Amino acid sequence: MRPRIFITQPVAASAIDRLRAVAEVELNPDSLHIVTKSELLDKVPRLDILFCLLHDRVDRDVIAAGARLRAIASMKITPSDIDVAAATARRIPVTVIAPIVTEATADIHFALLLAVARRVIEGDRLVRQGVFPGAQSAHLLGAWVFGRTIGLIGGGGRIGRAVAKRAQGFSMRTLYWTPRRKPENEEREAGLAYVPYDQLLSESDFVSVHAPLTAETRHLVGERELNLMKPTAFLVNTARGPIVDENALVRALKEKRIAGAGLDVFENEPKVEPELLTMQNVVLTPHLGSAVTELRESMANVVVDNIMAVLEGRRPPNCWNPEIYK
Predict the structure, then answer these.
(1) How many alpha carbons fall within 13 Å on the CB side of residue 269?
(2) Among 240, 257, 267, 273, which one carries the catalytic annotation?
(3) 219 is catalytic
(4) Catalytic hit among 103, 269, 275, 297
(5) How many domains is the chain built from?
(6) 87-101 per-position pLDDT tens digit
């Protein structure tokens, strides 16, 4: 019998074709539907491979139901919603993708920054409603970007440095803070100036979140930190939602303690705090960091590379729990 594979959302056709050449492939065809736990529990007993995406939660129950599972192949850089311990106990490899989303995520980060500062979404809505205030109207006055200060929280990583390169094109002063400071030569090369965390918050016109999500970084930006920001400053987050205390952010925005926010990630994805949806000074996108056609095709084919290795009895190249092969 050919192995059975389930893909939880549509991915690139080239990846699906590769899998169909060696396996029976079932696909959730709806790009707007995130498979539920009950749907996964219904599917996994018949599966050899589960090909899952960012919002899929593969918990202990799902893994226990997959008596035939030979691999859980995720299209994420880290398997944060997969019970790796449960998979490892059954010697099921959990695979991920390499960190290849850097430039695309930096692009969407700067897109959000520009959109919220220059009120692009508000302007678009007005034009579509037939309202044209005039080229010199005071109706949609925004904020400078060129020459301003951007502060990168956790900005010593790949995406932070990529955002810093884009900031150089806008002649921005670029500050960064991270628990482990980079060597001075790397700072010079990236155009970064290291400052203490509180100084970054108080001096930046744009506070950009780039830290990884860990127990230590959950709510790294909360009530205290938002109070340190300028009332004219903007918060931009394309890292992970729980790094920002969303309730505290809503309060800061409502009380005009900060000027606005650009968010691609949310604390309880795919749910979004309802009050954020009503705010004109917030630009929201549904986790589009890697949403570039060519990049998504590359990502899907990395997952296929991992799956092919498992089917051929080899250790997959991007295995998160390699100890199972010892």
Answers:
(1) 23
(2) 240
(3) no
(4) 269
(5) 2
(6) 999 999 999 999 999
